[in-house]
C-alpha cells in the first residue's frame, strides 16, 4: 500500500458512518434524497452507538419504544421491514462502510483478507447487492480503493473484500469474516 493510500485509509478510519454519509464525495454521493434517509440515519446512529440529534432521537424512540438511546454499537441488529423498504441498499452502505472506513489489517495474518460478507436470499438479490456496492464505490475517492471486482465480490485496498453469497449453510459455515449481514 502506497503512502498516499495509507493516508487516505487513516483519514477514512476516523469517520463515523454518519460522517461518511454527510459527505457527497464519500457515502453521501449514493443518497439521492437525504430527507427520505432521516429514519435510516437514526437507525445507523443507534446501530453504531453514535450520538443522536433531537430528530434522530425522536425517530429512535418512536420506532423502538425505548427512552434512552444506545451508547455503544450493537453486535447484532434484527430488522422487520417490508418490501421496498431499503434494506438491501442500507446493508450495502454498511458493508462498504465497514470495508472502506475500517482498518482490519491488525487482525489479519500475512496474506489474509478481511471479508465483509452479505448473505442474499437468492442469486437475483445477490446481483442487486453487488451492483449497489459497485455504485456506492463509484465516487472518485472510494473508487481509488478498489483493487478488483468479480461477479460476487469487490476487493479493496487494505486487504479487505466485500463479498455477496446466497444463503446456504455451506456458503457461510466456518468462514472467517470481519462482519456479516444476512438479507432474507
Write up this protein:
The protein has 184 residues and is of the alpha/beta class. It is 40% helix and 14% strand. A 5-stranded mixed beta sheet has the order 2-3-4-1-5. Strand 3 and strand 4 form a beta hairpin. The longest helix has 14 residues. The radius of gyration is 16 Å and the shape is globular.
Range of helix content: 25-40%
Stretches where pLDDT is under 50 for at least 5 consecutive residues are 1-6
If classified by CATH, what would the architecture of the domain at 81-182 be?
Answer: 3-Layer(aba) Sandwich
| First-last Cα distance | 36 Å
Q: pLDDT average, as an integer?
A: 86
Topology, element by element:
Blueprint: H1 3-12, H2 17-22, H3 38-47, H4 54-64, H5 87-100, E1 114-120, H6 123-136, H7 140-143, E2 146-149, E3 153-156, E4 160-166, H8 169-172, E5 179-182
Parallel strand pairs: 1-4, 1-5
Antiparallel strand pairs: 2-3, 3-4
Helix pairs in contact: 3-4, 5-6
Amino acid at each position: 500500500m502506497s503512502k498516499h493510500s495509507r493516508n487516505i485509509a487513516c483519514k477514512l478510519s476516523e469517520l463515523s458512518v454518519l460522517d461518511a454519509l454527510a459527505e457527497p464525495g464519500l457515502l453521501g454521493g449514493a443518497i439521492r434524497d437525504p430527507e427520505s434517509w432521516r429514519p435510516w440515519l437514526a437507525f445507523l446512529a443507534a446501530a453504531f452507538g453514535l450520538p443522536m440529534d433531537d430528530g434522530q432521537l425522536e425517530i429512535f424512540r418512536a420506532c423502538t419504544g425505548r427512552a434512552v438511546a444506545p451508547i455503544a454499537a450493537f453486535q447484532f441488529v434484527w430488522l422487520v421491514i417490508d418490501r421496498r423498504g431499503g434494506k438491501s441498499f442500507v446493508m450495502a452502505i454498511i458493508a462498504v462502510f465497514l470495508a472502506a472506513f475500517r482498518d482490519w489489517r491488525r487482525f489479519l495474518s500475512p496474506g489474509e483478507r478481511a471479508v465483509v460478507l452479505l448473505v442474499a436470499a437468492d442469486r437475483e438479490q445477490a446481483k442487486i447487492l453487488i451492483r449497489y456496492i459497485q455504485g456506492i464505490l463509484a465516487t472518485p475517492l472510494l473508487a481509488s480503493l478498489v483493487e478488483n471486482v468479480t461477479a460476487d465480490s469487490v476487493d479493496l485496498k487494505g486487504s479487505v473484500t466485500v463479498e455477496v453469497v446466497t444463503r446456504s449453510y455451506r456458503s457461510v459455515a466456518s468462514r472467517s469474516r470481519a462482519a456479516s449481514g444476512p438479507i432474507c
